[in-house]
Amino acid sequence: MRLIISVMALTLASPALAASGPFISLGNTNFVVLIAFLLFVGVLLYLKVPSMLGGLLDKRAEGIQSELDEARALREEAQTLLASYERKQKEVREQADRIVTQAKSEAQAAAEEAKEDLKASIKRRLQAAEDQIASAEANAVKEVRDQAIAIAIAAANDVIAKQMTAAAGNKLIDAAIAEVDAKLH
């Protein structure tokens, strides 16, 4: 039925009506071309060329669809990787910020500790200097005392030597021996 309708549509729409002479005769070239075309289309339909072309087009469409699906999957994987790398980059940046903050606080604490150590060192040195001054002062006082005692003994020795006679010296020696003898027994 479709074949008849298509043949009629082709004959009415074709320039075959413009040819001279009767249309349906083998002498009319337009009619011969029409018959050859219809035979060609019939052979194509008999050999199922349109279904083969449709199958090839379907295969091509399936291939394109699979490529699109693969491209979509690759795109999603790339987006996942990008998000992962961005997340890792953010974590690394935050970790670096924490390290810098911690280093600053440690440096500040070290500076405070160094100040305290310096104050303690200065205090120790001042105390050591004060101790040395006190020791030097005590040594000076001791030396002055020792010198004063030596001078006093020498002066007393001179005074006693000038005032003492031999008899008085013998008397003092005997008294000292008696005192020592009394203390020993």
Considering the chains and any ligands shown, give keywords for the structure.
single chain; 185 residues; 4 helices; 89% helix
Using DSSP, what is the number of strands? 0
Describe the largest sheet.
Answer: none
Query: Given the structure, what is the number of helices?
Result: 4
Mean pLDDT: 86
- Give the distance, in angstroms, between the N- and C-terminal Cα atoms: 171 Å
Order of helices and strands: HHHH
Contiguous uncertain segments of 5+ residues: none
Helix % is over 70%
What Rg, in angstroms, do the CA atoms define?
Answer: 67 Å
The general outline is rod-shaped
- The secondary-structure class comes to mainly alpha
Strand percentage: under 5%
Describe it.
With 185 residues, this protein is mainly alpha-helical. 89% of the residues lie in helices and 0% in strands. The longest helix is centred in the middle third of the chain and has 115 residues, at 49-163. It is rod-shaped, with a radius of gyration of 67 Å. The mean pLDDT is 86.
